[in-house]
Amino acid sequence: MTDDDTARAAALLKEHRASIDRLDAILVYTLGERFKHTQAVGRLKAEHDLPASDPAREAAQIERLEDLAKRADLDPEFAKAFLNFIIREVIHHHEKFQDEGA
Ligand SMILES: C=C(O[C@@H]1C=C(C(=O)O)C=C[C@H]1O)C(=O)O
């Protein structure tokens, strides 16, 4: 391993990390936008006495996401766990709206 190799590796690492930082920003803004819509859905549900969760919709989303994950070379089990984690948080928000009579 020469000094040149080490310098090239350091430059590559820096480039990858810059890309990772940009992608993390996209993830955060994307999640922020998603939550804006789910919050609006939660208020609608609370106003119209609709249940906080919709298991049929969730099952359809999971199926769709697993398919997308496979095509994107992402572990479908990870994609499923990630979406379930987000949906649990959304339902928690919806239940709070219903408790508050939003
Ligand atoms: C956002 C909704 O509420 C819940 C949350 C969902 C989600 O985060 O995608 C999907 C279904 C519901 O359990 C909805 O009904 O569309």
Automatic annotation (TrEMBL):
Enzyme nomenclature, EC number: 5.4.99.5
GO MF: chorismate mutase activity
Pfam families noted in UniProt: CM_2
Entry keyword set: Isomerase
Domain Chorismate mutase: 7-98
SUPFAM superfamilies listed in its UniProt record: Chorismate mutase II
Gene Ontology terms: biological process: chorismate metabolic process; salicylic acid biosynthetic process
Protein name: chorismate mutase
Organism: Maritimibacter fusiformis
